[in-house]
């Protein structure tokens, strides 16, 4: 069995990143509704089959895919298990193991992620199906009274308990504390996001240490430091890159092999430009790459439009975004290359 560190290193190999395709049923239903489709088992299968059969994108730019429980055990229309398609592309299958974020008792708009009960047994099952890594997302809200210290600690504690259970099962935990940029009211400044992201990361690493998590056998999946989506001032690409890098350098130990960002709150191009700008500055102890859901899938989803005959153009759209983010993970993306394609 590959060591946790070897799997983590493979996931953040130069020029590669993670495809987050672990939309829960309510989230994928929302994505499908945006193109006028109802969500059902066959359409979800077709959509994921389109992504996993995108040979160019999957073999050249994607190191791992985060799946849902449904997809981990699902097969393409011709009966080929999705796990086989991923293995053929040398892509590591991952699994989202949290059960979603629910209202935090006694709090105004905050959420706490659930899913620890029975997790040890579930992880053993996912490992037997070949999952090499897992993902758990904790959501931190910014509003007039949030985040509270209590909410940050509760989410960090859950992340640490999840991470230690993963490592016990031989699975690399991807630890995702997301300070929301597109929550309500969403008018906070970039400075406020930086402060909250710093406090969150500090608390998460304190809990990970207390839980005895081996930092060399995990990955961090954080938000970038952004202004809220309804903020008056939109920071420049340079400012986002500088502030995000600064915050990570202050709070993320060098023993962590890699950082793979989420894209929430950004356009496709912003998510790519910010990642590239950070890698251009360089001088960081970890590999910095992407673990994007929306920023990799938006155009492909619209191009697919629910039809198998659109697989080829949708796969091209996906490969284009994957290649642009691959360049960004090397600090080599440029707007003109993106637009020329
Ligand atoms: C793909 O979406 C993931 C699952 O979200 P839900 O449980 O809410 O359905 C999400 O955790 C995702 O992996 C990350 O947020 C990254 O996706 P984005 O779209 O932010 O890059």
TrEMBL record:
Lineage: Bacteria, Pseudomonadati, Pseudomonadota, Alphaproteobacteria, Hyphomicrobiales
Highest taxon of the lineage: Bacteria
Catalytic activity line of the entry: beta-D-fructose 1,6-bisphosphate = D-glyceraldehyde 3-phosphate + dihydroxyacetone phosphate
Organism for this UniProt entry: Arsenicitalea aurantiaca
Signal peptide segment: none
GO molecular function, a single term: fructose-bisphosphate aldolase activity
Pathway this chain belongs to: Carbohydrate degradation; glycolysis; D-glyceraldehyde 3-phosphate and glycerone phosphate from D-glucose: step 4/4
Pfam families (UniProt xref): Glycolytic (PF00274)
First-tier enzyme category under EC: lyase
Recorded family membership: Belongs to the class I fructose-bisphosphate aldolase family.
Enzyme Commission code: 4.1.2.13
InterPro entries named among the record's database cross-references: Aldolase_TIM (IPR013785), FBA_I (IPR000741)
Protein name: Probable fructose-bisphosphate aldolase class 1
Coiled-coil residue spans: none
GO BP terms, alphabetized: glycolytic process
Lyase found in the keyword field: yes
Keywords, in A-Z order: Glycolysis, Lyase
